[in-house]
Design goal:
Keywords: Membrane, Transmembrane, Transmembrane helix. This protein has 121 residues and is mostly helical. 62% of the residues lie in helices and 11% in strands. The chain has a three-stranded antiparallel beta sheet, with helices on one face.
Length: 121
């Protein structure tokens, strides 16, 4: 019976490529299913041999821990060098998007509150 090792929903291409390379290097037999046409299924990496599940999950766990460590180090390096963008930096880069979000929030708030103010009496 096939075992889902990695669901590919929200998995960046570089991570999926690295996992494929890891499985190939470890000699772990797997196959890949493609995403569905309507976005219901995202595709995945499946183990062809259930006997390899423990080893595959152990290697995947080690890989993900290493990837997380690299991401934390990269973010910390960006923060030290002053390249990490905060909220204000993002607002300065996309002022129209920020204004549109504020207008949307105010609209939803008005639609929610105004009926109670005008018709609540």
């Amino acid at each position: 019976m096939a075992i889902l090792l990695l669901n590919l929903r929200h998995v960046p291409d570089d991570e999926a490529d690295e996992v494929r390379a890891l499985l190939d290097a470890q000699g772990i037999a797997y196959y890949e299913t493609a995403p569905g046409p309507f976005g219901i299924s995202a595709g995945g990496l499946w183990l062809a041999d259930a006997a390899q599940e423990e080893r595959a999950r152990l290697r995947l766990h080690e890989y993900q821990a290493e990837r997380a460590r690299r991401a934390v180090e990269s973010r910390e390096a960006e923060r030290r060098e002053g390249q990490l963008r905060g909220t204000w930096g993002l607002l300065r880069e996309n002022p129209l998007q920020a204004v549109a979000a504020v207008i949307g929030i105010l609209f939803v708030l008005a639609v929610t509150v105004l009926p109670f103010l005008f018709f609540g009496r």
